[in-house]
Amino acid sequence: MIDNRSEVAKLMEKMETALPIPVYLTSNISRSLKESHNIKIKPTQIIHIGQVHYMGDEGGIGCSLTSKYLENAKQAFITSLTHLRVKRTHFLYKEIRTYQLKRIGKIATQNIVQSG
Predict the structure, then answer these.
(1) 116 lies in some domain
(2) Does residue 102 fall inside a structural domain?
(3) How far is CA 34 from CA 48, 50, 106, in A?
(4) Which of 34, 36, 50, 35 minimizes the C-alpha distance to 84?
(5) What is the four-CA torsion angle of 13, 32, 89, 106, rounded to 10 degrees?
(6) How many domains, the chain?
(7) Residue 112 is assigned to a structural domain of this protein
(8) Edge-to-edge strand list for the sheet holding 78-80
(9) C-alpha to C-alpha distance for 30 and 26, rounded to whole angstroms
(10) Residues spanned by the domain of 97
């Protein structure tokens, strides 16, 4: 199991009360949006988490993205919280970053065990 469900539930509750949360895309997600949907959002441009969803142990905390850059998009965009960078000045920054690092570490460990 990757996520501690009670910890995730607590973090999601805090995130829901703080919505919208300002974030930045990682370079990979920025590139993916450009290539697959011709949506150009630079990793330095602020977008927002508009909703949070739990996508199971495989996906973790999913975030619906909102932004003026997405207004003309014909579909919703949801990505894992691990692919977003929260503004360092946000009061949930440390808690979100801790979740991200734990999740990334556990996924890496599982991948090593599975491939080994």
Answers:
(1) no
(2) yes
(3) 18, 21, 29
(4) 50
(5) 60
(6) 1
(7) no
(8) 78-80, 61-66, 47-54, 21-25, 84-86
(9) 6
(10) 5-106
